[in-house]
């Protein structure tokens, strides 16, 4: 392959990651808009500075001077000119640095103003390696918990309260906002606002262990009526099993080790060390975005979690083929 074609191929491969689903250069909210403008402005200024430095360097290298008996003995006029050039360069550098600092200050002020009228508060807790998502409300009957998927009303600011249960994580949904760390023992807040309905992928942006790369989440922005419908459905108890296989699956789930880690609202399963499974069947992914949710993937995840996500806290449960199928049928029915 010739060099220009190779360069174009590498550029195309690099740009393949710049899509609407997860890209800081494809903003879909006011915070991401502000940060994108800052990214391009900083990039442009740095590019100009780099170009000027390269031009001066090339001019200096291309000039020829007569040899001097003592290389360190500069003529007084030439030394004064060099000193003025250094002072001018230092002055320009200081002006550029101060300008970038001022631009960052105003960008931060704009970001802080976005969440002034947030009506919805969601607590996001980072675990190795999944996201716990709690919708908070002054009325206990209106609070609920889900995992790895955050639904928000489009066009409205939503306050996120970020905390960690173990190590440092970092919440980052590039299309909607910059990243912010989740630090054990500390509470950080961030405001998300999506301009229009859509699905936006997020990712832990701080190395947090073996499965850091498989700690993703989805933000689903939808019109207010659709969001309220989803929220009302999530507040309900788990659906009752319909078929004999689903009933068998529920019985098995409650009698096996699954019940030691997971909660299913409306059943005796009330543990909270693993994701809440009350409405697992309504989600689109498994294991924090590791797999799309499907019958086969769910069976594979339950049968061999360490094969799917090595190091994950979910242990292997001893199940026969029929028992595995029954539990999968039950969990799939939890819409």
Question: Brief overview, please?
Answer:
With 335 residues, this protein is of the alpha+beta class. It contains eight helices and twelve strands. The strands form four sheets. The chain has a five-stranded mixed β-sheet with strand order 3-2-1-5-8.
Keywords:
single chain; 335 residues; 5-stranded mixed beta sheet; 40% helix; 18% strand; elongated
For the largest beta sheet, what order do the strands appear in spatially?
Answer: 3-2-1-5-8
How many individual β-strands?
12
Major beta-sheet overview? 5 strands, mixed
Give the CA-CA distance, first to last residue: 51 Å
Shape: elongated
Would you tell me the overall average pLDDT? 90
Residue runs with pLDDT of under 50 for 5 or more positions: none
**Beta-strand percent range:** 15-25%
Structural class: alpha+beta
Secondary-structure element series: HHHEEEEEEEEEEHHEEHHH
Share in helix: 40-55%
The number of helical runs is 8
Radius of gyration: 28 Å
Q: Can you walk me through this structure?
A:
The chain has 335 residues and is an alpha+beta fold. It is built from 8 helices and 12 strands. A 5-stranded mixed sheet has the order 3-2-1-5-8. A 3-stranded mixed sheet has the order 4-10-9, with helices on one face. A hairpin with a 7-residue loop joins strand 2 (130-136) and strand 3. Helix 2 runs antiparallel to helix 3, helix 5 (244-255) crosses helix 8 and helix 6 packs across helix 8. The two termini are 51 Å apart.
